[in-house]
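Reviewers of the previous submission asked for a worked example of the structure-prediction workflow described in the proposal, so we include one complete record here. The input consisted solely of the amino acid sequence. No template or homolog information was supplied to the procedure at any stage.
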Amino acid sequence: MSARSGRDLLAERLREVRAPRFRSGSALARHLGWQQSKVSRIELGHQLPTRADLNQWVEAVGADPDELHQLLDEAHVQTVSSRTAARSAAGLPGAQDDLAALEQASQLVAEYQPHMIPGLAQTAAYARTWLHQPRRPTTLDTIDIDAVVQARLARQAILYQPHHHIVIALGEAALRNTHGDAEVQRQQLGHLHVIAELPTVELLVEPASTAMAVMRGFEVLDDRVILEDTDQARHLTEESIVARFAAALDGLRDRAVTGAQAAELIRTIERST
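From that input alone, the workflow returned the following structure tokens.
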């Protein structure tokens, strides 16, 4: 049996605290001046309430605000375990497909990696070499690397589709860190030139001289932030957290080079590879 999500737990608790004061969601909706469908979506776990919504709900039903705000905090964090995904029918390629669906539904798709080429910009050889690294940290015993690589490349179709704004941001260290032999790295750097010319893509390269020492990789999809670790990905949807990462992305733009400057930096590193 799978663990229940934070969203489900919050929805159940909201139904429980509503029932003693209001016999139905419709009655609560009338009291709050909301559409009945909004209360229904929240109580079914299909929609998270805003902080303001939750405060109104708490006041109407006389519930403990600390408990419900804690549940909302937990509902805003979804953890996707690589080990769990690997054991599912779809496996890790299925997890890549799920990520692709989220990206396709987003207008802004921004991925930043300080020390490696972001997945949306990786060549097949680079991705395969990265996944084959014998000392790459992972809790998984086996990975169908070819299937994961193919699923990752399939995600890249979004680079060629209109109505998306794709930000590929990387640190200078990502250009210099070699995964595999020099030819793999040269092909990867050449691929960045191609991607940079696409009308949907904004390529940002953060020079080593301006890089933030403690920055970690992240992905921003409209109203979601994804933080990927060695064996899991955390999906954060709290509005204030998403805003902080959007601000971090703006900070990257201020520090990074782009356009002709980025192309020249990449060519300089190509010549030394």
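Residues 156 and 264 are 24 Å apart (CA to CA). We consider this example representative of the routine output the project will generate in years two and three.
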